[in-house]
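Standup notes
- HV: blocked on the assembly model, inputs below
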Amino acid sequence: MKSISIHWRNKDIYYGIVVTECLKCGRKSVFKWSRCPYCGSRELRVLKSKGLGVVRDYTISYYRGTEDLESYPRIIALVELDEGVKLIGELVDVDVNEVKEGMRVEAVLRRVGSDDPNGIIYYALKFIPTLRG
Amino acid sequence: MVKVFVTWSSMIKVGRYFDKNYKELVKEVIDSLELGNKHIDYLIISSVLSARALNQLDISTMIAQYLGLNNVKTSRIETGESSGLAAIEYAYYLIKSNLAKNVLVVGIDKLTEYPTQVTNEHYNLILDYELETLRRVSPPNYAALVMKEYMRRYRVSREDLTIWPIKMHENAVQNPYAQLRFKVSKDKVLNSIVVSEPIRLLDTFPIGDGAAAVLLSSECSTECIEILSVEASTSLQFYLRDDILELPASKAALSKVISRSGLSSSELKNSLIELHDSYSIYGMLLLEELGITDKGSSWREVSNLDNINLSGGLKARGHPLGATGVYQLCEVHKLMTEGLGGNVFDGKYALIHSMSGPDYNARLCLIRRGE
């Protein structure tokens, strides 16, 4: 079951990609953290990612949960964003035989469910082979 | 200095218990406990899925009530897949700090209450719900990426890595409490269905119910099996790691255990060891991370390692989540005392390892036979 407040509160990370840059050690990490995951510093800057990157590795997943009925199997990819951070995500709109390492991808929003009758449609961030170059 | 001993252990065969609820499984495990004049100061329950699969909060109170244990201090511990060893960790510290003399630790989880798809969904919650689970990333996906990287870096074939499940199933044949007590061949592993490529069904743990219990006490009676140290650590998120072949929490927990106990590397290599092989690649990587074999070559040595996962490991004994760590201690206790399925370990040390997800947290428990 999905929560409206969780989705609303987390819209930055659900409907976009943010990157935390540490002003002390200089390392970047995907998502928002209260301290730098690498050095523990609180001097952080949050950047918005352009959502473009490269598939560094992937696995074709036949592991099935109750929410995997529509998209099966799934391609779960380790994507390195152009901002220099890695992120795990699902790769769609590509045949399992055509996915390869080094493939340029971009982040898109895809519908993952709705909670009728409240009328809320939930989206999740996924990757597709890039249309933006 | 207060010492902590394992004075009693009991478990049921991991499996499918459609005819029994969790309370009945716990009772079955506890039935052989004879306290004599001992009083249980604390009852610690380890259960991962109680709130989800059993619809039960405060499960430790429900169990205490069912067992007729009134006026007992009780709580539930949950740290994902390592919950069982975490419960042992807290029991250990209660005794060590002189707040208790006898602590009963029970691990209980029922994974077969729902179809596998539902249980998988529950299991996915051991990862970060907001950042991983909601994005449909599952624990086997991480293990798959680790296995691919291992094969690539060390130029190892998928076939070479079938040795882990083959060995684990061989070991489980001897363990009367194991869920999968049959041997598997290389072909059977390679032809089992794909879970998350290159991981196949026979690289992962089976789904089963389990209950196990240990009594930790400040005094031992006949054979003294002492817990020397329990250490734990956490680690970076998988996608933030520079090298996904490292298991940082397990490594940090090991260095704490070694600095606390002074265990030498030859003592470590001769120990009875139980590793958390939720996916076969983790079993092999752990051998390397703990320094038992060299990096990239554990798979060559697995068939000759006779002190590792005599239980059959998570792979073949099974992995009833919150009960698993307690099973590991039960097995070690039995192997060091009365024996387990005809196997006896007469060495001095035993080391138990447990972790959650891709080493998100890890725990190690070092055990020594009393002098």
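- HV (later): unblocked. Residues 139-153 of chain B form the longest helix (15 residues). Chain B has a mean pLDDT of 96.
- Next: hand off to the docking folks.
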